[in-house]
Amino acid sequence: MARPLAPAAGNLADESRPARRAFRIGAGPLFILPTMALLAILILYPVVSTVILSFTDAAGRYVGGDNYAAAFRSSSTIRVIFNTIYYVAGSVILQLVIGVAAGILLNQKFRGRAMVRSLMLIPWVIPGIVAAMTWAWMFHTDYGIVNYALVSLGIIDQPVGWLTNPSTVMPALIAVNAWKMFPFVAVMVLAGLQSVPEELYEAARVDGAQFRHEVWHIMLPQLRPVLVAITLLLVIWGLDGITIIYSMTGGGPAGRSMIFPIQIYAMAFEFFEFNRAAALSVVYFLLIVGLIALYLRAFAPQEND
Amino acid sequence: MTFDDFFPAALETATYQDKLYALPFQVEAHALVYNKGAFREAGLDPEKPPQTWDELVVAAQTLTKTTERGQQYGYGVAGGGQDQPGNTLFRTLPLMWMNGGGILSDDFTKVTLNQPESVAAVQFYADFYTKHAVAPPSTLENDGLALRRLFIAESIAMIQASQADFLLIKQGNPDLNLGVARLPHPKDRDPAVILGGWNFIVPAEAPNKAETLQFLQFLSSTENIAYYTNTSPARRSGFDQPQHQRPDLVGFKQMLDYARRQPPLPEWSQIVQIYYDHFQEVLLGTPAQEAMDAAAAEIQPLLEQ
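^ inputs. structure came back:
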């Protein structure tokens, strides 16, 4: 896109003054054109071509809504949507609760605080695939340390198939996802708390505030903008994150932990049904856009605030 | 060049709509691998491995017991893990074939997965885990690799495995006394097995086509095809060569006579995934008929596309 513009600019330079002024006004946007072109190639083109794919068949013929109809006819689609919402909502809530608690705790003064602060980052720093494989072994029915510990302590009599029992598989995966991301929340909360003015605490203490009052009436309200932003990030990462589930259960047993992104991946790269995968992608894209629009409308700071 | 010497199933894998597109080179088939030491310990004759389905169930029940090494299970069932749905397909589709069923009719236009013969085979396989409890509790996490490891660790006494598995087991636990036998079949019927291996294909638009074909001609001579395969040669006469005369591998060679190809359909991988998901439902306790009816209802539209 940038190429045809270069000679045009050259032509303009030869022309009369008014034209030159017009060019000068336009120079700003011209400088961002390479970036815009790059973005168009990397973002706009894939989106448009996905939409086109979703309305055609493998031979490129227009088939209307057939791919969408097929996606919705599949009995698994409803379960996949439910699983995705369950997984993302569960993960985000747990990540926020644990992360905020950890952040507030690590903001207190105690010995070894620097050490604990750095150690806490480990789950976040470990590559996702390594963490997932490790947890998969820890949750293993026969050889996992989780069952070993629980049976040894007498909490359960029989080993539990954490990742193969339909009622425990999603909570187990959510726990792993929460473990993986809570340090991020804690770090952001910690940073947010540094900017809370000391006077607020002092004033509250003069009025006889306890620690829990400080948390509820000072820290959380002051953290609101931070929490709004990181919740959005967590929701986005939750919606497009496949590492943990793909490598721990692959969506099993019998689709009980199948989520939307894995379904799209399988449709495209395991079954080579690119058109149906495109239709699923478009549906998922709209779903995410809708969710985020709702969220921003409800929580983002309004202009007239 | 004539192809009379090649395994018919190997030629079928290279044939599409009555035209031969590839040169079969290496073939392989699963067999029953069992631990002779465990047979002796359990009072079974290690030279008389189970031949029929009923004998397999009895042997698996006898072999399931606590030994000085810990809990030992009779038979390995591939019900989950990473290498899926292929591992489960390779262990269950042959059972359907042996019983006169299959996933699809011979002309690939109808689903036969929910016919009585196929359902009985699925139920037979799942029962090792759900009814007889002679497969480990971790069955829904075990793929072929996990079963091999459990066999090496002497936690499972019999598995269905490939020649490659067999050699790795020997490497992993040289003390084991291994037996290889034909896969058990229903009484008065023949065994069956899925053919594995690979073929050479020369694309129509390849450069140097004549030379490549000449090279393949050279490679496919009895001596060369035998020399360059590390499992079994696609030509029967290749077995006359000394390196394919190992007595411990005879069981695998015998199975090649019962080998059949998988249906050559573009939708096959998707069909297998649907079947696998519903097979896991059977392992979770759904009756095989109900689960396979549901699978058939999902597969049939794919055949009518």
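The interface with chain A takes residues 80, 82, 84, 136-141, 155, 266-267, 269-270, 273, 277-278, 280-281, 283-284, 294, 298, 301 of chain B (CB under 8 Å). Chain B is about 40% helix and 15% strand.
thumbs up if we can close this ticket
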